[in-house]
Design a protein that fits this description.
9 helices, 12 strands, elongated, alpha+beta, about 450 residues, about 25% helix
Amino acid sequence: ATSMPQPPSVVPLESWLDTFALPLMRDTEDRHVCADPPCDDFRVRNKYYVTKGHERKGKKERSAPSAFRLVRVYLVPAKAKIDHLLCDALNPSAARFMLGIVFQVNVKDFVQHIVFLFEREAANDATLDPADLATFSTLLDQCAEPDTQLFANRLKILPLLSAGAGAIMRGVVNNQPGQLAEALECKQYGGHKYVEVDVDIDAYKSDSVFTKLAKAAVGLVYPKVAHLTVDLAFMIAGLSEAELPERLLGAARLHRLNLHCQDNMIGTTAPGRKVLMQPTMSDMVREIRRSMGETALQMADMLEGPADDDDADPGSLPATSTKSVASTPRTPRTPRGTAAGPERSRKRVKKRGVARQFQRFGHWVYSDHPDYKYAYEAVPAGASPPAMPAGASLPPSAKVLASPALPDGAADRSPFATYCACLGKCASTMRKENPPAVL
């Protein structure tokens, strides 16, 4: 028969995780519930477990009171495995250190996250020997340091089937400890006053002895977990005399757990997680166009020189052409309908020759010339030209900056194809007006 534990006094986390909390066990007839079990039946390594010649060498004894108190067990179903599930689930102003152990279990077409959340309980340290308390505190501090995987590598599990199992199953599973990282993929994450260890139940590492035992235990328990009462205790493995005796971190009871529960199914990220938005394709195209246009306009400046340099030889390259295009500053452009500010150092004029084509292309790609949306917009036959905004008028330079007449079929082309057609017609006109000399 299952002994009834006292239900812990539960304080909600006041986060999205509260929605997934398992109900507390009130009666042995309950199903799909959790509890904080008594720890009297768990056995851990004593202080002299590895001491040669000592009479207590190799023996296991009852643990001191657990260092943590069970806060709650949570069942979080998701469409995919989520690492660092507790990233935005815990209160950053919590007074006590917290430990989260997350089992990631593949269940058919979704992943069940079983979250064991514990809170440091300093009151349980009162009965410990000062030397043993110092040993445990040192090891715990080392495991909880930032940028370490020591907790994940040392985390040890101790299962106990309290009810619902036969003698054979109890003999295989009960009090058979295992260092989880020896058989399964374990990852450690840290944050303000908490540590999370994720354990992928289906990611077996190698064919070690513990892996074979773990597979056997999981194979026995998993199919019947809905009919069992499973107590799971956790501890940090003590591997030397300086790290012993072992002490339970905490324990949790799962009573007739339904792993197929899909209530409040989530997607591929935790509900409270801040997701960095990836740039969309339109954002990237817009950025490429801006960069190309800026470069083309700078090339036009380099080929012909500053517009206010009236003494410059149009057939020679200015000194700025020797500089990198990326390092050439571009004069800010004043939007249509606004007065030119003091930062505008020169007026806009039409370039000549090859520089003119760079200027055209730069204005089109960079979209910084307000007159182009009127000059380049194709108007179907018989239709009226697009209406300009109230109070707007084309400046005197619009006649100079306007493109040549659009070729036939331009209305059916894309803006870039229309520009290329205009550029081709412009080049053809230049060849007719300036035929090559015949030698």
